[in-house]
């Protein structure tokens, strides 16, 4: 715990986040940051003494009540925090007197929030005040708050007032009617009821004082029962006030206030309750923790995000789910979005599947609401609400009222058009089942979800007779900047996928649970006509995908929209929609969040259409630069992190990952005050485990394809698959082989004490065996001349290692071209290059290559080509060395480019060798990185500044041979061994 | 005070309304009923002990804060009422233990609300508890609350908790941030600030206990400062707790909480404060009271309505005005409508003009908001907000959000279309000036209001080149059931009137305050072009008025709408809009409130176009039956009461009047819980003074044309005109002469001790000089035959004295005809009658008439005809007596029919005689009534059952002469004199 990271007045250790300075401008966002909870309720990190600017909130799952415009919201429940300390008549408040020291700390391991303040009162009394609170995860109806006061320099008359505030508010609105209040021998109680939904809530509290003789007194002003303790304390004398609170609602018992009072009467000591709570947290973390070594910010941030998810996941209730802002703020009013199914659920599915099941069962229980929505819109089956609450009816607001007297109301169209939610729910349902094998739940709940939403889709699609295809018109896709689009690729493909799964489930039910199928048949009318229609839609729904380019058009006509260069708007602190306005945003190729890329991400898990490394690459290049990843949707960064990681864009992947991981800790988007970004937190888990850890399911087992960010020395986590825990413990030096789990024996070159046993060589092509730089130059020059652009050899030098797109952008300079034009120019240049390499011949082999190849072959060493080029195979042919090469790994072989190890691992596999038996010869930094990541020996050609990480560095292959190389490799191995000892 | 009226558990005396039984279903409406206030704030009549169903509210003028949808609302201020009595541990609550007796009473004379309860606690202790409260009108920042407890049968340990509740709410929404709280030696205080408007409020309270030894204790839980007194009381021992509260806001001082604490420290005793308060009320009532004798319900109801207006009229603030629901509830959110200018202001203009000026100056201060609204809608000048709050910007909500998930939002169009408000403000401005002669205010404020709104109108009208006229299209008129109409007669005529007055004011300013005119010229650009346009609009704006019929079409095309018979919907308990829906209501000839009739009412005061007795009659007959007077707008009944009274429809007038007067006392419309119906209360004053009292301005002095409802023995009130008080004391037996004021010397025939000095005779026509009954019968018979309706001479007997319309309705019986058809039949019958009287000749003179006429003429006595018939003149011609008649008063002469005295007064005036010099000869009850009301001598022809009130009763004129008649009249005068002595 020595390692700390500091940022914006926050200090991170592996398990804690601390604030040592209260920044007024972060007052409300820090209330979100320091939220605690226990799966039953969440309580924002507001201060016990109360401030007018504060937004205290205790939100209980399912306690919804009506409100205008947004229909219903989680009602802020009575505040159990109020605890006022009065020192010689001076009320303790941070803005009064003087703060001599201050620390607020959230310990996510123990689920405890504490605050230590040394305060000098306006009268000059110095006192230490320590607060500690927890919402028991061991007993969800119990809340504990402790306050310890210690006068520092003089005896003080101290009064502590502990209350329940029966006037909680949702941004001013108080949902509660006060029914009754009173006292018992153990404390005071309050009985309230929500205005419209008429949910009753009982809360009781008692205090216990130790360390001094005190007089205790009860006052019961309406709605504000208060227990007051008055005592004298000498310097150094610590007096402890423990406030225990119990809370129940009529959602879980008949007479909540009675139950709360009974519970209060039976509670053990504060310390026992805390012990049980910490013990329970330990059990939770054993399953869900992720260990990261080498990056304390990432370590804490990841645990923090998981903590925030763990405290809002319903543990004993399958009629609620996690709202977009969890139980930590008023944003989105406690409504439930696709955020839960697509972004949050994977964490639970793979580490706490019983919680995932609770949340998916919520979708089962809310099918009636989804059916009412379908009826309202004139469709069949179940149409899930874009925003859902207690009943599943649609609660997305229709209007965003203007702030000024004459402003226009803004119509929000999501309730009507953002229909992909129904497929998203089916998606989560399917993968929960895949991961858990929970056939019983699929039979009882999941099947009905998937089938009745499939029925909705077949009533929602339209047949276009002109093009003889199914279409889905007038939707909003994943990207919400475009509000009225036809044939959104994301939606159409998700629907197709959904119907495929529906047919599968139908058959599965028939084979395994024919009675259940019969029941659903009766209930939903799953006629063969209906199923044949599903098949027809699957076959004929239009996905705007261009096979020739691999590019997917986000929706019909997207490419015709005005293009945009987001860099031109930098620096900015608000979303592109805020800058452009809704109308203008609709007209441009700017995305709020991944849409085509989101589709590729969702299809990545099962590697289904249209997912492929090629389409990913192609569409990433097109869509990533057009996505408002900084201020668009907070759902974007984690997904981009994973895809960038797949594409070997390590730095970008890490940047996006941290953008997601710190969104609430550091208020990256400026809206943390509204509550935790739940989807982003879920995305963080996916980015670490599925992205950096590279977990994929191979042969019905999770397999890691790790790709750790720079500096991460270790990544350790558990992954539950079909009832079996798989513990992954990944380290960068092990980042070389596809593994299934950590307890498998792996031979590492670096840990071997013997000389390397070299059995194969993998050569990069360009710059190693030949040099096609001249051909690239000539191709660019030709293009530049045709377009009248300035270009020459000197300029060409700057393009080494630069991507095709970036090269072109540098050549065009300040000139602006529409994207189509850029695309066309890149294609043209490539064609020139491909044409020119027709002229390659054996004379283009670099010096020393042919000799070395022959030597190696004579030594029985296998030879492979490892090049990202898609032209590698013809070039090898033309160089006349095809007969000397045993295997080729090229631009078609793997998805992730160097520095991902994939290409070399592929090559080794082709050669039938272990990575540690291979030597990679490379001239580029990313190539050396990739080889090291693959766990291979490396020979770097060129300056140390470029290939310095290689085991052996040579200027080129001209003056070497196998004997010399072997000696150098042996030396390198020995040195490495020595360094380790 | 012996006389009491009972109704729905309320008991009325002349000055008090009492509740002796708490009906649960009236819980919230009674909170409205028992509202108190002082012109600075209003406090609903909620109970001190607090209930979950309660809607306590203290609303302070001008303390607005933002809220969604409706933009801004009066923020409910901290509740100063909480006072909890705990008897031997049992909290006093009405639903616990047993209520042995209960009375809640509002004394509107003293402005004091009290409650007496004898309660048996659950533990069996019986105690008397008496509460009393007032909001001091002598010192508006002081509130007093007293609680007296007296154990009845056993010594009790009693605790009284007096608090300020810092968590007030507007239907759940709490507008306040708690800034600070604390205690002083005099009590506790609370400092809060509104969330958005950032108005600070300081409230302080202290308690004083007498009658027992008590321990006092202060607790200060956040937002709920509480003072607790604990004591023992023996049976019969009365302990009094006096809670005094002070309140200030930053609208009137810089540091409100400091000022509140200082004020609290300096306050005298409760009893002194109460005395000063009662004294101040006495002064208010001296000006504004109305005395009614003979009808205790009306007496109390009128005083109650005036009380509710007096407690919400801003006394020391000219930047606020009276909201639609006063300061007594949450309805309409404290927004200000035309209700204030048109319905409420007359009461103040004529009894407390300085308060009227405050409210009109509010309109002056909000001109900038009205100008912003005009700019927003693309117009010039000042366009007043339909709903106005602190700035004058438009705050009418655009939408009525639906209650259910899939309901449609309802667009409210008033902000866009109900534009007559700008003319309404000008109307009130003009009449304030007329009544007060306050030239200074007109110069400084009023002129700018009238002129800048006139500028708005000239940008708002459209010129229709086809018809060569100005039009105003796309409006909502006074009648809100029609939301999109063109050329609403009310609006168009009000605009024309407004422009006339604007030109007048322009000239007046030029003549009297040329510098001010110059200033406004500069500021508003009052170019001659602009003024010439005003003249042009005045000349050419279209008023849909048919001169031939006298009927005004409510708007273009109204008569083409589907007709409706509201009786078919009876009995009903909701508005026609609620029954038909908005769309269907728009399509029908059904009115929410008077529109054409409203225009006639507004033009009645100055007898301007299109007002005339004839148009009133004609349009009343058409529109009154089509107006949803019971559940449409609460603005309607009082106006209908006045017009019905004008039309001699006494019973209907009284019914409408009581509908208005009891709307809140008896919750006639079921929405009293939302707050007092301010406009209705203002209408009640107008109905009594301008309607029943018949006050009109003649010769620059108010003159009464009284027409007291049946049973009223006295109507007494004051009326201020141009700085001079006019005291009216009207009684039915004096209801006979036009008077200016009570202290004026009037020679009454009844009070003369001498023989009457008869100088003129006024003869009714039909039944006195001739008998046209036969002609009427023949005309009806012809119509009935043509229509196949049963009718005969016997049936005709039932039509004596019955109006044409009512006669027709009796003939048609159960059959339903559209209004047009009825109208046509009435016209046809009249034509038959007119045709038939062509045959009248001198032989149709009744016996004795010609002789008497000749005698009278020989005696130098003038002769007039006084007949309501519009055919009187031709009939007189045909009877051959035209040369014997000096003057004719007929159906064209005056507005109000008999029994109004107008016609005979008109005739006397034509003869140049005083009423007491005239004898009226009549054969109808209403005619005798009218003559007596005119202060004339009367000769009744017919049975005493019909004309028994006359001074002289004769079967007919056959057997009399002038000598005999004079003798009888002298006898009658002598008897009358004797009866008085």
From TrEMBL, chains A, B:
<dbReference type="Pfam" id="PF03636">
    <property type="entry name" value="Glyco_hydro_65N"/>
</dbReference>
<feature type="active site" description="Proton donor/acceptor">
    <location>
        <position position="766"/>
    </location>
</feature>
<feature type="binding site">
    <location>
        <begin position="867"/>
        <end position="871"/>
    </location>
    <ligand>
        <name>substrate</name>
    </ligand>
</feature>
<dbReference type="InterPro" id="IPR036412">
    <property type="entry name" value="HAD-like_sf"/>
</dbReference>
<comment type="similarity">
    <text>Belongs to the HAD-like hydrolase superfamily. CbbY/CbbZ/Gph/YieH family.</text>
</comment>
<dbReference type="Pfam" id="PF00702">
    <property type="entry name" value="Hydrolase"/>
</dbReference>
<feature type="domain" description="Glycoside hydrolase family 65 N-terminal">
    <location>
        <begin position="19"/>
        <end position="250"/>
    </location>
</feature>
<keyword id="KW-0479">Metal-binding</keyword>
<dbReference type="InterPro" id="IPR023198">
    <property type="entry name" value="PGP-like_dom2"/>
</dbReference>
<feature type="binding site">
    <location>
        <position position="898"/>
    </location>
    <ligand>
        <name>substrate</name>
    </ligand>
</feature>
<feature type="binding site">
    <location>
        <position position="807"/>
    </location>
    <ligand>
        <name>substrate</name>
    </ligand>
</feature>
<dbReference type="GO" id="GO:0005975">
    <property type="term" value="P:carbohydrate metabolic process"/>
</dbReference>
<feature type="binding site">
    <location>
        <begin position="764"/>
        <end position="766"/>
    </location>
    <ligand>
        <name>substrate</name>
    </ligand>
</feature>
<dbReference type="Pfam" id="PF03632">
    <property type="entry name" value="Glyco_hydro_65m"/>
</dbReference>
<protein>
    <recommendedName>
        <fullName>Beta-phosphoglucomutase</fullName>
    </recommendedName>
</protein>
<feature type="site" description="Important for catalytic activity and assists the phosphoryl transfer reaction to Asp8 by balancing charge and orienting the reacting groups">
    <location>
        <position position="867"/>
    </location>
</feature>
<dbReference type="InterPro" id="IPR005194">
    <property type="entry name" value="Glyco_hydro_65_C"/>
</dbReference>
<feature type="site" description="Important for catalytic activity and assists the phosphoryl transfer reaction to Asp8 by balancing charge and orienting the reacting groups">
    <location>
        <position position="898"/>
    </location>
</feature>
<dbReference type="GO" id="GO:0000287">
    <property type="term" value="F:magnesium ion binding"/>
</dbReference>
<dbReference type="GO" id="GO:0004553">
    <property type="term" value="F:hydrolase activity, hydrolyzing O-glycosyl compounds"/>
</dbReference>
<dbReference type="InterPro" id="IPR008928">
    <property type="entry name" value="6-hairpin_glycosidase_sf"/>
</dbReference>
<dbReference type="GO" id="GO:0016757">
    <property type="term" value="F:glycosyltransferase activity"/>
</dbReference>
<dbReference type="GO" id="GO:0030246">
    <property type="term" value="F:carbohydrate binding"/>
</dbReference>
<dbReference type="InterPro" id="IPR010972">
    <property type="entry name" value="Beta-PGM"/>
</dbReference>
<dbReference type="InterPro" id="IPR037018">
    <property type="entry name" value="GH65_N"/>
</dbReference>
<dbReference type="Pfam" id="PF03633">
    <property type="entry name" value="Glyco_hydro_65C"/>
</dbReference>
<dbReference type="InterPro" id="IPR010976">
    <property type="entry name" value="B-phosphoglucomutase_hydrolase"/>
</dbReference>
<dbReference type="InterPro" id="IPR023214">
    <property type="entry name" value="HAD_sf"/>
</dbReference>
<feature type="binding site">
    <location>
        <position position="922"/>
    </location>
    <ligand>
        <name>Mg(2+)</name>
    </ligand>
</feature>
<feature type="binding site">
    <location>
        <position position="764"/>
    </location>
    <ligand>
        <name>Mg(2+)</name>
    </ligand>
</feature>
<feature type="binding site">
    <location>
        <begin position="799"/>
        <end position="804"/>
    </location>
    <ligand>
        <name>substrate</name>
    </ligand>
</feature>
<feature type="binding site">
    <location>
        <position position="766"/>
    </location>
    <ligand>
        <name>Mg(2+)</name>
    </ligand>
</feature>
<dbReference type="InterPro" id="IPR005196">
    <property type="entry name" value="Glyco_hydro_65_N"/>
</dbReference>
<feature type="binding site">
    <location>
        <position position="923"/>
    </location>
    <ligand>
        <name>Mg(2+)</name>
    </ligand>
</feature>
<feature type="active site" description="Nucleophile">
    <location>
        <position position="764"/>
    </location>
</feature>
<dbReference type="InterPro" id="IPR006439">
    <property type="entry name" value="HAD-SF_hydro_IA"/>
</dbReference>
<dbReference type="GO" id="GO:0008801">
    <property type="term" value="F:beta-phosphoglucomutase activity"/>
</dbReference>
<feature type="binding site">
    <location>
        <position position="829"/>
    </location>
    <ligand>
        <name>substrate</name>
    </ligand>
</feature>
<feature type="binding site">
    <location>
        <position position="780"/>
    </location>
    <ligand>
        <name>substrate</name>
    </ligand>
</feature>
<feature type="domain" description="Glycoside hydrolase family 65 central catalytic">
    <location>
        <begin position="303"/>
        <end position="686"/>
    </location>
</feature>
<dbReference type="InterPro" id="IPR012341">
    <property type="entry name" value="6hp_glycosidase-like_sf"/>
</dbReference>
<dbReference type="InterPro" id="IPR011013">
    <property type="entry name" value="Gal_mutarotase_sf_dom"/>
</dbReference>
């Amino acid at each position: 715990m020595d390692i700390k990271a500091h940022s914006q007045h926050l200090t991170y250790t592996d398990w804690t986040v601390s604030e040592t300075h209260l920044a007024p401008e972060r007052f409300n966002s820090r209330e979100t940051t320091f939220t605690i909870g226990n799966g039953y309720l969440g309580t924002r990190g507001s201060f016990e003494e109360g401030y007018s600017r504060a937004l205290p909130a205790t939100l209980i799952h399912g306690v919804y009540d009506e409100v205008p415009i947004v229909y219903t919201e989680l009602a802020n429940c009575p505040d159990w925090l109020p605890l006022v300390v009065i020192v010689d008549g001076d009320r303790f408040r941070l803005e009064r007197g003087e703060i001599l020291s201050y620390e607020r700390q959230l310990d996510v391991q123990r689920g405890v929030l504490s605050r230590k303040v040394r305060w000098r009162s306006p009268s000059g009394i110095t006192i230490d005040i320590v607060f500690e609170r927890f919402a028991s995860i061991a007993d969800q109806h119990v809340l504990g708050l402790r306050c310890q006061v210690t006068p520092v320099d003089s005896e003080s008359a101290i009064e502590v007032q502990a209350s329940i505030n029966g006037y909680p508010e949702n941004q001013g609105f108080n949902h509660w009617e006060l029914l009754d209040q009173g006292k018992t021998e153990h404390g005071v109680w309050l009985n309230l009821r929500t205005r419209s939904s008429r949910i009753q809530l009982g809360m009781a509290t008692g205090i216990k004082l130790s360390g001094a003789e005190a007089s205790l007194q009860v006052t019961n002003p309406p709605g504000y029962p208060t227990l007051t303790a008055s005592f004298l304390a000498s310097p150094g004398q610590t007096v402890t006030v423990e406030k225990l609170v119990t809370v129940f609602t009529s959602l879980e018992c008949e007479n909540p206030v009675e139950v709360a009072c009974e519970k209060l009467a039976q509670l053990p000591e504060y310390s026992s309750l805390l012990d049980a709570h910490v013990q329970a947290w330990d059990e939770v973390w054993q399953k869900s923790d992720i260990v990261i070594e080498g990056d304390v910010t990432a370590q804490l941030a990841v645990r923090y995000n998981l903590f925030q998810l763990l405290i809002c996941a319903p543990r004993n209730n399958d009629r609620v789910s996690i709202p977009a802002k969890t139980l930590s703020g008023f944003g989105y009013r406690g409504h439930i979005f696709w955020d839960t199914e697509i972004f949050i659920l994977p964490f639970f599915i793979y580490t706490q599947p019983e919680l995932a099941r609770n949340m998916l069962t919520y979708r089962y229980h809310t099918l009636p609401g989804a059916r009412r929505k379908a009826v309202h819109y004139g469709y069949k089956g179940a149409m899930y609400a874009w925003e859902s609450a207690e009943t599943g009816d649609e609660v997305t607001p229709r209007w965003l009222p203007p702030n000024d007297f004459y402003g226009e109301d803004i119509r929000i169209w999501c309730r009507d058009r953002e229909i992909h939610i129904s497929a998203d729910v089916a998606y989560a349902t399917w993968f929960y089942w895949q991961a858990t094998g929970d056939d019983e739940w699929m039979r009882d709940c999941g099947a009905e979800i998937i089938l009745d939403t499939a029925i909705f889709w077949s009533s929602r699609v339209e047949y276009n007779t002109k093009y003889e295809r199914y279409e889905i018109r007038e939707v909003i896709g994943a990207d919400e900047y475009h509000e009225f689009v036809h044939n959104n690729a994301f939606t159409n493909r998700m629907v197709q996928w959904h119907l495929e799964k529906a047919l599968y489930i139908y058959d599965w039910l028939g084979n395994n649970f024919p009675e259940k199928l019969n029941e659903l048949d009766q209930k939903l009318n799953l006629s063969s006509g209906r199923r044949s229609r599903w098949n027809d839609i699957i076959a004929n729904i239009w996905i705007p995908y261009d096979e020739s380019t691999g590019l997917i058009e986000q929706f019909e006509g997207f490419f015709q929209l005005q293009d945009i260069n987001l860099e031109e708007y930098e620096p900015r602190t608000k979303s592109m929609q805020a800058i452009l306005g809704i109308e203008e945003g609709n007209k441009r190729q700017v995305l709020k969040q991944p849409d085509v890329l989101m589709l590729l991400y969702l299809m990545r898990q099962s590697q289904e259409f249209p997912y492929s490394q090629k389409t990913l690459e192609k569409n990433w290049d097109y869509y990533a630069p057009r996505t408002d990843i900084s201020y668009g949707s907070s759902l974007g960064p984690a997904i981009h992190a994973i895809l960038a990681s797949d594409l070997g864009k390590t730095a970008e992947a890490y940047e996006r990952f941290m953008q997601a991981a710190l969104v609430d800790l550091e208020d990256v988007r400026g809206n943390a005050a509204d509550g935790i970004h739940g989807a982003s937190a879920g995305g963080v888990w996916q980015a670490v485990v599925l992205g950096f850890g590279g977990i994929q399911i191979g042969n019905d087992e999770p397999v890691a394809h790790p790709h750790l960010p720079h500096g991460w020395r270790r990544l350790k986590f558990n992954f539950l698959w079909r009832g079996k825990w798989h513990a992954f413990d990944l380290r960068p030096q092990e980042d070389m082989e596809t593994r299934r789990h950590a307890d498998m024996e792996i031979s590492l070159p670096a840990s071997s004490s013997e000389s390397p046993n070299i059995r194969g060589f993998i050569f990069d092509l360009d710059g190693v065996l030949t040099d096609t730089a001249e051909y690239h130059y000539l191709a660019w020059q030709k293009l530049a001349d045709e377009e009248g652009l300035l270009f020459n050899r000197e300029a060409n030098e700057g393009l080494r290692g630069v991507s095709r797109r970036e090269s072109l952008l540098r050549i065009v300079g300040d000139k602006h071209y529409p994207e189509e034009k850029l695309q066309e120019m890149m294609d043209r240049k490539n064609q020139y290059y491909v044409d020119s390499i027709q002229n390659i011949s054996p004379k283009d082999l670099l010096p020393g290559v042919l000799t070395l190849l022959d030597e190696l072959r004579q030594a029985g060493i296998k030879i492979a080509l490892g090049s990202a080029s898609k032209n590698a195979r013809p070039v090898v042919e033309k160089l006349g060395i095809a007969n000397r090469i045993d295997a080729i790994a090229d631009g078609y072989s793997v998805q992730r480019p160097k520095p991902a190890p994939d290409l070399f691992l592929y090559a080794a596999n082709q050669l039938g060798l272990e990575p540690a038996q291979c030597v990679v010869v490379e001239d580029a930094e990313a190539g050396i990185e990739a080889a090291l990541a693959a766990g291979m020996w490396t020979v770097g050609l060129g300056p140390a500044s470029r290939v310095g990480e290689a085991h052996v560095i040579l200027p080129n292959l001209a003056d070497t041979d196998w004997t010399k190389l072997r000696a150098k490799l042996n030396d390198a191995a020995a040195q490495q061994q020595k360094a380790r000892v």
